[in-house]
Amino acid sequence: MPLPEKKICCPHCDYTYHLPIDDSAGSQDFYDDCPNCCCSFRVRLMFDPIHQVSRLTVDSDDEQIY
């Protein structure tokens, strides 16, 4: 059975593509590379088991915290 896909945009070049998401493992935090510009970006999948809802965030992970 194929994994569900989520349409995302690269935070560096705005290229849009579909990323397969496996939420059966719960919350995840990983890096992926854009197939267009090859820059890496951070993908965070937060899963709420009580409400059966998952939230996906994508960012460049190069913001500085002051």
Q: Can you characterise this structure?
A:
The protein has about 70 residues and is mostly beta strands. It has a domain at about 25-60. About 0% of the residues lie in helices and about 50% in strands. It is built from no helices and 5 strands. It has strands spanning about 5-10, 15-20, 30-35, 40-50, 55-60. The strands form 2 sheets. The chain has a 3-stranded antiparallel beta sheet, with no helix packed on it. The chain is globular, with a radius of gyration of 13 Å. The chain starts with a strand and ends in a 7-residue tail after the last strand. The model has no long low-confidence stretch (mean pLDDT about 85). This is CPXCG motif-containing cysteine-rich protein. It comes from Echinimonas agarilytica.
Write a compact overview of the structure shown.
With 66 residues, the protein is mainly β.
List keywords for this structure.
two-stranded antiparallel sheet, 5 strands, mainly beta, 3-stranded antiparallel beta sheet, 66 residues
Assign an overall shape: globular
- Helical percent range? under 10%
Secondary-structure-based class equals mainly beta
Number of helices: 0
Largest sheet: number of strands, sense, barrel closure: 3 strands, antiparallel
Portion in beta strands: over 45%
Mean pLDDT comes to 86
Instruction: Report low-confidence residues grouped into runs of 5 or more.
Output: none
In the sheet with the most strands, the strands line up as 3-4-5
Radius of gyration: 13 Å
Distance between the termini: 45 Å
- H and E string: EEEEE
The number of distinct β-strands equals 5
